[in-house]
## 1
Amino acid sequence: MQFKDIVGQRDVINRLTEIIDSGRISHAQLLLGAGEDGCLQLALAYLQYLCCEHRQHNHEGELRADSCGECPSCKKIASLMHPDLHLFFPTATTTRVTSNPRCEDFAADFRNFVLEKKALGSLDDWYAYLGIDNKQGMLREADAAAIVQNLAMKSYEGGWKMVVIWMPEKMNLTAANELLKSLEEPSEGSIILLVGESDERLLPTIRSRVQTLRVKSGDRKVESNEEFAGMLVDWLRLLFKLKMKELSAQVDKMASMGREQQKQFLGYALNVMRDCFLKTAAGLPCNLNSGDQKFDAMFPTMVTANNIEMIDVAFNDALFAIERNAYGKIALMELSFRISKALKKR
Ligand SMILES: [Zn+2]
């Protein structure tokens, strides 16, 4: 993950690259913010920049610097396969791991989950991915012991030893206590990034040993509406053509956003459709601003009194399904078929 792949957060990113360039790197840092704020993205892009062999410094543009994305180190971190990058996260028993779950049992699952969701997945998304929707995940003593052990070993590649702890608030007390020493006396060349949503449930002793960075969602939301507009038009166009391969790719793109983002997108899309219906019914102009005049003129007339209710119900069903931990892609695919059918009934 490069910083340029992250939506918004320009100020935070510039601060992070400045810290790395200055060499004043804190050995234990806590990044706080909701999943859709891109905290895990920031952590991974931060480590990629830290290890990059050819850091790029821009003299123009919004980002002052970024990793190159092409050196061996960048590639290994981007694919989460760097031997000195260790990921820790809450787990629970599953049908496959029926007792004493540990992060290492789910290492491949977590990697795939992060890559699939572009590091924007929420804790609920992760539980749904593991199929443990009703259980509470946890970071346990065995995980803390593995962190301590990883940090004590020599680095494989001779560079930084990196540990990312995702959702440290899910650490149980024994695990948290076990970890304290590593935070207090960091081993040479090691960096621990804790990526969580709230520090209220973290032990005060942990909080006091880490440097905290709060990530605000402010500027992300503004940009995501522009992102939503483009995504919506691309999706609507495909609903007319119903070419399965293209539609499936578009739905993948939509499903790769975090759960909260998916819900926001559906809310946004439904509002646009209602707006089309109301304005057309009132004889007012309605512009989607898609950049394609023919489509802009045609689409609003497709939403009529004959199908607005079907559309409304389909969106609400999809929102409900996503809220209830359904697999995003399936919910969005079903919605696509229902909207496509509804639009033909105008
Ligand atoms: Zn690089």
## 2
Amino acid sequence: MRKIWFCLLATLVIWMSCKTIKETVIPMSSDNAMLLKEMSPNDKFDTVICAPRTDTFATITISLVGDIMSHMSQVGNAKLEDGTYDYAPSFAVIKQYLNKADLTIGNLETTFAGPDQPYSGYPGFNTPDQLVVALKDAGFDLLVTANNHSTDTGDKGLLRTIKILEQFAISYVGTHKSQQDRDSVRVYNLNNIKLAVLNYTYGVNGVLPSKPYMLNLIDTALIRKDILSARGKGAEIVLVYYHYGKENEAQPTTTQKRQVEFAKQAGADIIIGAHSHVLSTMEYFKADTSARVDSGFVAWGLGNFISNQYWRYTDAGVVLNISIEKNKLTDSIYIATSSYLPTWVYRGQNKSMQQHIVLPAQWAEMDSLPPYLTKDLVVLMKEALDDTKQLIGTKGIKLTLQAP
Ligand SMILES: [Zn+2]
């Protein structure tokens, strides 16, 4: 009899602790049409939950990489016998580390001016549109486009690049097609955490675009305005992605230090850098009172993600993962974890594999590798792995090395 009473009581307690919730997923607030993983606007669903604790926290992960370049030898390797192009092999291995994040971001350091003018690498990049197809397939959701190569093919190329990104449903920020487009700061609603992404460059190699709105230059008044605008749109985390620094220089310059300090004071929570083509250090910082998090994060330079640059340090990069957690009861938000996957670029040195391929550098420590990775190449990969581990560790930062 006692047992029956106990069972009845237990059933009642379980029933009371469960509740039916009706949740409406809020569509993202960016004007820039963008497909969010695991969400579709206006989706409504009923869920029976019995574990309120899991509903207390919302977590998102952002994956970030540095420079995505397409030098002429990459164009050559992507060219198929029928004259078309395919960049998919470049990301075939690494895509599994990119497509799990809620938002995957990279720096697009080329333009898509189209086939009417010759494809080219440095100094005036014009890349086949198929690179975008491969980037989309690899998991990229957003490409920052303000960099010193944004105007390599002039206004026309800059605008066509945006058109191609839109065509393949990749979000963009940094270069813009109108004043309204520039002023609509990108705020992404990811699992009910609102993240703004802003992007600025120190300048361009050639001539600036004809209209100032076409390119975000590093301008303190503009950055301050954009951060305020992002907060106004409900951004809980503001990420500033800078294109700055000195090429081949891992140590931040005085100017970079000033630019990062400014972003901190203007209320940025996460600051990411690229341009130097070599990896730089990362660290947490005590955020400004206007920021939402106590502890912000800066990655001074993410290095190259893919390029034909092959000397030491330029062939190494990382996939940086930042997880952000929000306690929905207290409304507090913080950077929960950071991890990185060291990468290394195979450049089609062997006739058997004429491709540029981004690989996890930790492959260098694996016993069984594809035959195109000769012993000499594994030595270079191992060197890249060790360099990266040493560099990221120099600030005593506890980043978790992500297993390949
Ligand atoms: Zn650059």
